[in-house]
Specification:
999 residues, mainly alpha, 61% helix, 1% strand, 2 strands, two-stranded antiparallel ribbon
Length: 999
């Protein structure tokens, strides 16, 4: 029964080309054809795991080692013919992967890796081998074994010993916390993998000695290939392995791989000297190996998997730098060597400009710090001055840091040592620069010379390649002349512009800036008047391009006569729009009210455009109130209902000026949120959006009339309108008409213009959100058409259960729409239990089991008032528990699944026993930690019996200690039993909350 459950195919029908695992066992030749496929399914790694899993769960009783059958049949009699056949198939697949530990370690669980290596040692030696084993001489080789093949197996095993410790140590530790009964800290309890890895530490030195011996051994090294392993044949009693088919590989290739593994291990244990030694040997061996393969005309290595980029990283980590490294790396190397050769590196960088300037600055500070602490040698001060000089030259040549010029002058113009080194360095390197850089250097030198004293000029300035004797003489003559006397206005440092066009331009710019930042209508009016008087010809509303207003209002304002009203209306309307974007609704309304008051002046009463502008501004004020209500929900501003109704009333009152469509849509949605459904129904249908609002209002009124009773007739218009949105071909009008049976509202343009996302973003009322979620969930189930993967929501039965031509719809878009709506709904109602269930179902259907567990656990925690409940079953319905069991099983947490079986109305012992048994083959679940969460004595008895059969005495005693608690006594009354179960439920739920909700 167990064998069937482990490898049982899914409920979905399998493609014709799919090969089941046991077919490889019956006909091994299929394996070769399967592995030659471009993308074999199952993959090679999956096949290895399947074969090893079957050998685990299907043990065969071994015969006596001294029996005649054992002597004749060897391994077959000891481990069983079927198990041996499966082990050989697993090894054939591993050989197909060239026994690449990178692939095996990355994709196989640790237990399967150990089992694979154990099987390899067993088959190559011809005897059953139990890990750990050390040297070849410690192994007894049977008549069917091969010493060379066993050497290959042991080399792979000892490499694995080192690599497993590194991989385990470098893995990021999980922060998940599992509930454990009183005892040690649950975060400090190691897993079985940790125990296994720690047990390897005692074997580490033995593995290093073995690998060193292999590299020094003169015997040939052979790689076991796919043909070396011969699958068992049902028609043959004894099948020998073809170890002679192993492919010889050079010793250099073996050494390269082992040196690389040793380097990684020594780096891991912080033995940097040994790591450096091995990485250098690996680099040299890799070069020889590449040359050897090139001579043979081959490119891909047979055994070695060393990645050159990764090797380069380890070389850098060990402080080994290649000659062709970048200048930045050379500089870092020089820093590590106490600045040896730093001058040459900086001189070269002044020509190439490769090292970032910020790194050059950091280097200068590092040298200065080393000098102050006495870490530099005797010539440290000279090195420091040289670095300063070279950095300054780099600033000059690169011409990217203008401030560095002045910083050098101000800091070192009185330091003759630095200046002397600077001039000497320029003279040494001047000829190496190109013409453009020479010009820059010479200009800087002239600038520097101009501020030096006469004494410094006489001491430092000498004829060189930079300055000739004549140029130096001219400079000295200029310095000796009398200084120019500066008097009068030149000495005035506080200049003020008091007249002319300059003052006017500055003042205008200042006022414009004030206008842009002003949020007071009266101040804005004053500033506009001042600007208009200073520059009458300028369009004041064009000052700030960020003032964007709706097109109808913009067109109307620009049609007004040029004057104050045009500028004032445009500027304040634009500022109001800008303030709404910043959620400053009250100030925005104040701005628009000022514009509205301006349009109501008596002198504008006869101007129809101004009157129309006033109405449009009033509509914008209502629109801002609606936006404020949506933003601050559930807080509702006073008069919001009347404002929304007045907007929609413009469609039925034959108003000459009606709001723009965006405002009407926002008003209709807000009335839905405010439960004013009748007002939405009477709305004139001017767009698909308004039509959808009206349809939902009609349906909600029908649903509201139910009062908890089932009603046969509910308006299906929302279903008919939303369904075409998810068509793969939304313009297919014929298909749409056949589906919905409607005419006027099914035009392609109407469906195309329905902006469902805008409708979703504006929904706030939980009732209408639940109605829409039920519609989308029903549609999702109809398109999915799989009873095992349905999602559940309130009011789902109101909508049709089937959809014709389901393949023509995009179910992924439906799922994404539900997710979007739920994400927004949780922003306002984070503890709605029905929505949390729906979110969990959706994650479950999409295969995100860990995320589904998060929401299911949230449902149970929320429904039980955060684990503070008195009733035995608050919202512990079968649906949630069953799906939680499936989720934990898929996540490998079998013990959690077993405990969840207790939450069912009647404990599912079959499923619980299966989960507990599965747990013994998985290291991803802490089995012992959950004994304190079991209140069903039958489960504890099963666990005790299982530990007894397996000889796990300590774990059996632990389970017995929980079973012996008085609160679990079978003779207790119902109240005591209920309290015991409740306490354990709380403990288990809290552990699940820590694991899934806090990640």
């Amino acid at each position: 029964m167990m064998e069937v459950d482990v490898l049982k195919p899914g409920t979905a029908p399998l493609p014709e080309e799919t090969v089941l695992w046991f077919e490889f066992l019956l006909k091994p030749s299929l394996l070769d054809l399967h592995l030659k496929k471009l993308k074999p399914d199952p993959s090679p790694i999956d096949l290895i795991q399947l074969f090893l899993s079957v050998t685990e769960v299907s043990p065969t009783e071994p015969s006596s080692p001294d029996s005649e059958a054992s002597k004749k049949e060897g391994l077959q009699a000891k481990i069983g013919r079927k198990n041996l056949a499966l082990k050989i198939l697993a090894l054939k697949v591993a050989a197909h992967l060239h026994f690449n530990l990178d692939i095996i370690e990355k994709n196989l669980p640790l237990s399967k890796q150990v089992q694979l290596l154990s099987d390899l040692c067993t088959v190559t030696s011809g005897k059953v081998q139990n890990l750990p084993i050390s040297l070849v001489n410690d192994c007894v080789i049977g008549p069917d074994g091969s010493k060379q093949s066993l050497t290959f197996a042991l080399t792979l095993y000892h490499r694995f010993i080192l690599r497993a410790q590194v991989r385990r140590g470098c893995q990021t530790k999980s922060n998940k916390v599992v509930m454990i009964p009183p005892g040690p800290d649950p975060n400090l309890i190691p897993t079985r993998d940790d125990y296994f890895i720690s047990s390897m530490e005692a074997l580490t030195q033995n593995s290093i000695d073995f690998l060193t011996q292999i590299m020094e051994d003169k015997e040939a090294f052979k790689l076991l290939t796919y043909d070396c392993f011969v699958a068992l044949d049902a028609n043959s009693d004894n099948v020998l392995q073809k170890f002679d088919a192993a492919e010889p590989i050079s010793k250099i290739e073996v050494q390269t791989q082992i040196y690389f593994d040793l380097c990684i291990y020594f780096l891991f244990i912080k033995s940097y000297g040994k790591a450096r030694e091995n990485v250098l040997k690996c680099r040299d061996s890799l070069r020889m190996l590449k040359h050897e393969y090139a001579m043979k005309g081959k490119k891909d290595f047979l055994y070695c998997t060393v990645d050159e980029e990764e090797l380069e990283a380890y070389l850098l980590a060990c402080g080994v730098f290649e000659e062709d490294q970048s200048l930045l790396l050379k500089m870092n190397k020089s820093i590590m060597a106490k600045y040896e050769g730093i001058v040459d590196v900086l001189k070269e960088d002044n020509l190439k400009c490769e090292i970032p300037i910020v790194q050059r600055k950091i280097l200068e500070l590092d040298v200065e710090g080393s000098l102050s602490t006495g870490q530099l040698p005797s010539n440290g001060r000279e090195t420091y001055h040289t670095v300063i000089a070279l950095n300054t030259i780099r600033y000059i040549v690169d011409d990217t840091d203008m401030m560095a010029f002045d910083l050098f002058i101000e800091k070192y113009k009185r330091n003759d040592d630095v200046l002397e080194k600077f001039f000497a360095t320029i003279n040494d390197t001047y000829n190496s620069f190109d013409t453009k850089s020479r010009v820059k250097i010479k200009q800087y030198v002239l600038r520097l010379v101009s501020i030096l004293s006469d004494l410094q000029l006489n001491t430092l300035l000498k004829p060189s390649t930079v300055l000739s004797q004549q140029e130096i003489s001219d400079l000295r003559r200029q310095k000796s002349e009398d200084a120019i006397t500066i008097t009068g206005i030149a000495q005035n440092t506080n200049w003020s512009f008091t007249e002319g066009k300059t003052m006017s331009r500055l003042e205008i710019a200042h006022i414009e800036r004030q206008l842009i930042n002003c949020t007071n209508p009266k101040t804005s009016r004053t500033l506009l008047v001042r600007l208009a008087s200073m520059n009458p010809s300028k369009l004041l509303w064009s000052i700030n391009p960020s003032w964007v207003i709706p097109d109808p209002i913009r067109a109307l304002i620009l049609s007004l006569p040029r004057g104050f009203l045009q500028d004032f209306s445009y500027v304040l309307t634009g500022k109001a729009k800008e303030l709404v974007g910043k959620s400053d609704f009250s100030t925005a309304i104040t701005m628009l009210n000022a514009v509205k008051a301006e349009t109501q002046r008596a002198d504008f009463a006869s101007n129809p455009n101004v009157v129309k502008l006033g109405k449009l501004i009033q509509y914008e004020i209502y629109f801002i109130q609606i936006q404020q209500c949506s933003e601050e929900w559930p807080r509702k501003p006073a008069g919001i209902v009347a404002s929304a109704k007045q907007l929609l009333a413009t469609l039925t009152n034959n108003e000459s000026v009606i709001p723009r469509l965006e405002i009407l849509e926002a008003a209709a949605t807000m009335l839905l949120n405010l439960c004013e459904w009748q007002s939405v129904i009477t709305t004139e249908k001017r767009s698909a959006y308004l039509d959808l609002c009206s349809a939902f209002a009609t349906a909600i009124i029908d649903i509201d009339k139910m009062k908890g009773q089932v009603q046969k007739k509910v308006n299906k218009e929302p279903w008919d309108m939303i369904l075409p949105v998810f068509l793969n071909q939304p313009n297919n009008a014929a298909s749409t008409k056949r589906q919905t049976g409607r005419d006027s509202r099914d035009s392609p343009s109407l469906q195309q213009n329905l902006n469902l996302n805008a409708f979703l973003k504006r929904l706030r009322d939980p009732f209408i959100i639940s109605i829409l979620l039920s519609l989308l969930s029903r549609l999702h189930n109809a398109l999915k058409d799989d009873g095992n993967f349905e999602i559940y929501a309130e009011y789902m039965l109101l909508w049709p259960a089937t959809v014709s031509n389901a393949n023509g719809y995009n179910i992924k878009a439906v799922s994404e729409t539900i997710n979007t709506l739920l994400k927004q709904a949780f922003r306002y109602y984070p503890t709605n239990i029905s929505w949390l269930k729906l979110k969990g179902d959706l994650e479950f259907v999409n295969g995100s089991h860990e995320s589904a567990m998060k929401y299911y656990v949230t449902v149970l925690i929320t429904a039980s008032e955060y684990c503070n409940f008195t009733h035995a079953r608050p919202n512990f319905d079968e649906h949630i528990i069953r799906r939680m069991i499936k989720c934990t099983t898929n996540l490998g947490s079998y013990m959690q699944a077993a405990i969840l079986c207790q939450f069912l109305e009647e404990t599912d012992y079959g499923l619980a026993f299966k989960s507990i048994t599965e747990k013994t083959y998985s290291f991803s679940d802490a089995m012992d930690a959950y004994y304190g969460c079991i209140w069903d004595v039958t489960l504890l008895e099963f666990i005790i019996n299982m530990h007894n059969k397996k000889g796990e005495h300590k774990r059996k005693l632990q389970a017995i200690s929980y079973m012996g608690l008085l609160e679990l006594n079978a003779n207790n009354n119902d109240e005591i039993s209920r309290q015991a179960a409740t306490a354990r439920k709380i403990k288990f739920l809290r552990s699940l909350a820590k694991q899934y909700m806090l990640t």
